[in-house]
Amino acid sequence: MSTALKEASDDAALLRAAGLRVTRPRLGVLAALREHPHADAADVLTAVREGQPTVSHQAVYDSLHTLTEARLVRSLQPAGSTARYELDAHDNHHHLVCRGCGALVDVPCHTGSAPCLSAPEDHGFAIDEAEVYYWGRCPACAAEDTTLPHSTL
């Protein structure tokens, strides 16, 4: 079985396990996010249309919403950025965001377990996650920006 067919079969099983119908747009979104992590909705649509040229905007947006609600996909929205999406690996990782080009990359959680931070006051909430964004400049943007001191993140 080819890798693409195996992944599609795995994705179908993943959808069924989450109680979702298996649809071509949902399979396309999962495949697109596997190939393009941290893609925004427009990039996901473009990627899905490579294999499904007639898929509608609405089908992709609905799929992103449904998959996010089912916790199969994670929606990320760093301040000042459009929402981006990744497959939800449930691995408690965080993200680095470049202030220059907007690149977004995964970084492991320092503690490894969720939540990795403790709130000084929980107000009665049962806290189960902390979302962390580290901000800085990627190597390419840092090299281009001669006004900022270079640092090693």
What would your notes on this structure say?
The chain has two domains: 3-76, Winged helix-like DNA-binding domain superfamily/Winged helix DNA-binding domain (Arc Repressor Mutant, subunit A), CATH 1.10.10; 91-144, Ferric-uptake regulator, C-terminal dimerisarion domain (Dna Ligase, domain 1, 2-Layer Sandwich), CATH 3.30.1490.190. The chain has a three-stranded antiparallel β-sheet with strand order 1-3-2. The mean pLDDT is 86. The chain has 153 residues and is an alpha+beta fold. The longest helix has 15 residues, at 3-17. The protein starts with a helix and ends in a 9-residue tail after the last helix. 37% of the residues lie in helices and 15% in strands. It has five helices and six strands, in the order H-H-E-H-H-E-E-E-E-E-H. Strand 2 and strand 3 form a beta hairpin. Helix 2 (24-35) crosses helix 3. It has helices at residues 3-17, 24-35, 41-51, 57-69, 139-144; strands at residues 39-40, 73-76, 84-87, 94-98, 104-107, 133-136.
**What is the average per-residue confidence, as pLDDT, rounded to a whole number?**
86
What spatial form do the alpha-carbon principal axes imply? globular
The stretches of 5 or more residues where confidence is low (pLDDT under 50) are none
The proportion of residues in beta strands is: 15-25%
Largest sheet: 3 strands, antiparallel
Number of self-contained structural domains: 2
By CATH, the superfamily of the largest domain comes out as Winged helix-like DNA-binding domain superfamily/Winged helix DNA-binding domain
What is the C-level CATH assignment of the largest domain?
A: Mainly Alpha
User: Which CATH architecture of the largest domain would you pick?
Assistant: Orthogonal Bundle
Give the CATH topology of the largest domain. Arc Repressor Mutant, subunit A
Helix content: 25-40%
Q: State the distance separating the first and last CA atoms.
A: 42 Å
Category from helices, strands and their pairing: alpha+beta
SSE pattern, N- to C-terminal: HHEHHEEEEEH
InterPro entries: FUR, Fur_C, WH-like_DNA-bd_sf, WH_DNA-bd_sf
Family: Belongs to the Fur family.
Main location: cytoplasm
Keywords: Cytoplasm, DNA-binding, Iron, Metal-binding, Repressor, Transcription, Transcription regulation, Zinc
